[in-house]
Amino acid sequence: MNRRWTLASSVAGAVVVALDGTVLTVAQPRLQRQLGASLAEVQWTSTAYLVAVASLLVFAGRLGDRYGQQRVFALGMLGFGAASAAIGVAPGVGWVIGLRALQGVFGALLQPATLGMLRAAFPPDRLATPLAVRTAAIGLAAAAGPLLGGALVTALGWRAVFFVNVLPALVFGLPALPGVPPPLPRRAPVRPRRRPDRPNRSGLRPPCSRPQQTPAGSRTPLDLPGAVLLAVTLSCLVYSLSARPVSAAGLAVAAVAAAVLVRHERRTASPLLSPAVLGSRAIGAALGVLVVVSAALFGTLFVATYVLQRRLGLDPLHSALRSLPLAVLMVASAALCPALLRRLGARGTTTAATALLALGVLVLSGATSAPAFGCACALLGAGFGTVMVAATQVVVRRAEVAVAGVAGGLQQTAMNVGPAVGVATASALMSAGTETALLTLAAVAALAVPLARALPRTDGAEAADGADTADRVASITPGADQRVRGGAAAGR
Questions:
Q1: H or E element: which one contains 13?
Q2: Helix spans in 68-175 (H)
Q3: Dihedral angle, C-alpha 289, 257, 100, 404, nearest 10 °
Q4: Distance CA 317, CA 329 (A)
Q5: What is the pLDDT of residues 204-226, one digit of tens each?
Q6: What is the SS3 assignment for 478?
Q7: Which of 423, 455, 482, 468 is nearest to 354 (CA)?
Q8: How far apart are the C-alpha atoms of 15 and 17, rounded to whole Å?
């Protein structure tokens, strides 16, 4: 795929997943009434999806590294659309729950591939802009989701919100299939004057005549035991945190499975969690920032519902309108983040943004009027949008192309585990009052500041701040655009 179509496909995949979650929330009350479902069954329409996605994201990213990000993206996109269409004609709530779990499997295939494709298509120093576009699109989807869902449910019923996914799945999934050219034209390759297999005057064959080596990810066997252990760990963790009250037994099983997973990954010859990814100090810090910040934001939004409707006395529609500054500033901050990264670097940008997010939670804790709430939402959106781009850029840029899918899966896992932790924390603290809950969440957001200090100081400082093997992306075979000095590839 060319870069423009790759970016469009990545954005479409991210938007489809983001829209699906927001519109379902609006559709659940009517789904419950028409299917005669209990409240617990309706909650499982969300929980089944979350558990399936969280448990498979990293392994799905590994499949993309092995078999190709574009191929896995096509499978995920088309499967997601097919599962959505099946939910739209489901005869009962049991079918909806089962198909939502299947939809989560395809969503797990889809999400890491959207990042892996960008890593393979764009040079490392140009990743910030496509990631900003992707993040801004997610912000727009989050803002438009409730409005779109409300309009569809009111006019056509709850089933219509699932049929929305079918058209983009076909438009972007079919061109990603192997052998299908993308709609946008490609540049015609420039033919070399000299045949690539003919020696030059010095008697040496040109570098371009060397066969391209297969990426390491395609030769490494799949770590199926590690994938199963990781799936058990994450599924138990997400389920336990989503349950009300939090399941202590589930957390215990997750802890035991995690300990066995660590032991297995240390001993196996081909670990699922590649040391090239987890061994990077910068990637580990960026993943920690994403978990902490998403936990603080989604926990805050959970509490904000009570602030709007109980403290300020607003109805659900006006509550949603009061939250619009969050989406607007998230889009705007994502668009400005590449410039901030060039000026301040990942460390300075992320540190300032996490502090801004924590300030937004503090402002919300004392908000007694709609304007104060709007100001708090603006701070939350500006901080979160900036962190999303900056931290994701570190994860994707500093991972080698051969393990970009695993890095994308870990990024998506962080964005699934973080909200579950945040909502569980907020719900546990609600009995002490909304102010206490928000102050605690502000302290959680502040934990991301020291984590951000481990990020690179400048945007291009691959070798300066904790550089390791995962921080340098170097091809074994020199590319056509590499300069050659004295017959040897530069930088080798």
A1: helix 3-35
A2: 69-88, 93-121, 128-156, 160-163, 166-173
A3: 50
A4: 20
A5: 444 444 433 434 444 567 788 88
A6: coil
A7: 455
A8: 5
Give me the residue label for tokens 């870069």. 3
| CA atoms of 234 and 64, how far apart (whole Å) | 20
d(CA 155, CA 357): 37
Burial label for 177, CB within 10 Å (0-12, 13-18, 19+), is middle
Structural contact between residues 148 and 64, judged by C-beta atoms closer than 8 angstroms: no
Each residue's pLDDT tens digit, 48-100:
888 888 888 888 888 888 888 889 999 999 999 999 999 999 988 899 999 99
pTM for the whole structure: 0.75
Which residues on neighbouring strands pair with residue 7, listed in sequence order?
none
Give the CA count within 13 Å in the CB-facing half-sphere of 464.
10
268 sits in the region (left: phi over 0; alpha: psi -120 to 50; else beta) called: beta
Token digits of residue 443: 């302290």
Residues 6+ apart with CB under 8 A from 12: 77, 168, 171, 172
* Residue 427: other Cβ atoms inside 10 A: 17
Residue 124 CB neighbour total at 10 angstroms: 19
How far apart (Å, rounded) are the C-alpha atoms in residues 355 and 449?
7
Burial of 447 (0-12, 13-18, 19+ CB in 10 A): middle
**Placement of tokens 């603080």 in the chain:** 296
Hey, what are 223's tokens?
A: 């770590």
